[in-house]
Amino acid sequence: MIYSTKTLKMAVIGDPIDHSISPFMHGRIIEEHGYDALYIPVLVHGDETGRFTDAAKYLGFSGFNATMPHKINLLDIVDHVDPAAAYCGAINTVKIRNGEASGYNTDAPGLLAALKNREFEIKGAKVMIIGAGGASGAAAHAFGSAGASSITVLNRTLAKAEQLTSDIDCARAKELDQENLRSCAAEADLIVNCTPLGMTGVKGDFDDLSFLDDTKAFVADLIYNPWRTKFLARAEERGLKVMNGLDLLIYQGLLSFQIFTDIELDLDAEYRYLFPLCRERLSL
Q1: Which one of 9, 71, 95, 174 is the catalytic residue?
Q2: Is residue 184 a contact partner of residue 160, using CB atoms and an 8 Å limit?
Q3: CA separation for the pair 280, 155 (Å, rounded)
Q4: Among residues 172, 177, 130, which one has the least CA distance to residue 154?
Q5: Residue 266 burial by CB count (10 A; 0-12/13-18/19+): exposed, middle or buried?
Q6: How far apart are CA 183 and CA 20, in angstroms?
Q7: Dihedral, CA atoms, 144, 149, 154, 160, nearest 10 degrees?
């Protein structure tokens, strides 16, 4: 493809970033429709979020996605914050127009779309979230808005979980230890891992997954690389329904693409097109 000054430039930033298949996914959307656009991965360390944002403005980017560790940093960096992103406490999508950056969160609606696609009903559900980072904030606020009956956020640093749940009426915070994991899992209808534990390129994994032995919950992991983390493999061994992060990745990516380009997409049709392609890519 021949690029020009009119080519829409988009990116995903993170540390690590080589595991991401967002460039592949967005590339397939661009290729499918013949858009004059490109989407690239960029390794950006946690203390360089502002520098990259300034560079993206200068270079005329249409926008960029952000994964860890940038989602919370961006709240204090962008020129404008969408109310939904402010409510979630995290930004994963930045749109740039006329030298100004606006922050959005497509993780929350993307996660709800992913669970709906898997026929899980959030309304009235008891939800357990592991971790208190940017993805956890988006998940907790999405579930609260969608009518979950209760949300429990478990994190090693209790203060972070308390801050995350402070403005969600049905949410509570607990310290991440085996006792709380077991008791919360036993009551949960949905368990979501929002930590990077088990992700390709990240050191560390769950040491003890026995808390999954006495639950009947639907189990979701926001990680999609590897395809089955130890967390999901243990859940499957127990006969539980599971979902990895690919559905979320696709839906949030499609919503981001619409924000970057101002092009409306048929989300479900695009999902059906992208899922087998991304699944095959992950198996390579």
Answers
A1: 71
A2: no
A3: 33
A4: 130
A5: exposed
A6: 34
A7: 40
Number of other CB atoms surrounding residue 119 within 10 Å:
8
Q: Is 160 a catalytic residue?
A: no
**Assigned token pair, 133:** 């980072």
- Cα distances (Å, whole numbers) of residue 148 to 45, 141, 155, 253: 35, 10, 20, 24
> What pTM, to 2 d.p., does this model score?
0.89
Q: How far apart are the first and last CA of the chain?
A: 24
DSSP one-letter string for 60-95: T--EEEE-TTSTTGGGGTSSEE-HHHHHHT---EEE
CB 238 within 8 A of CB 217: no
Q: What is the DSSP letter of 4?
A: -
Handedness of CA 224, 153, 104, 73 (dihedral sign): negative
Question: Residue 255 pLDDT more than 70?
Answer: yes
Which helix (H) or strand (E) element contains residue 102? strand 100-104
Task: Please check the confidence at residue 134 and state whether its pLDDT lies above 80.
Answer: no
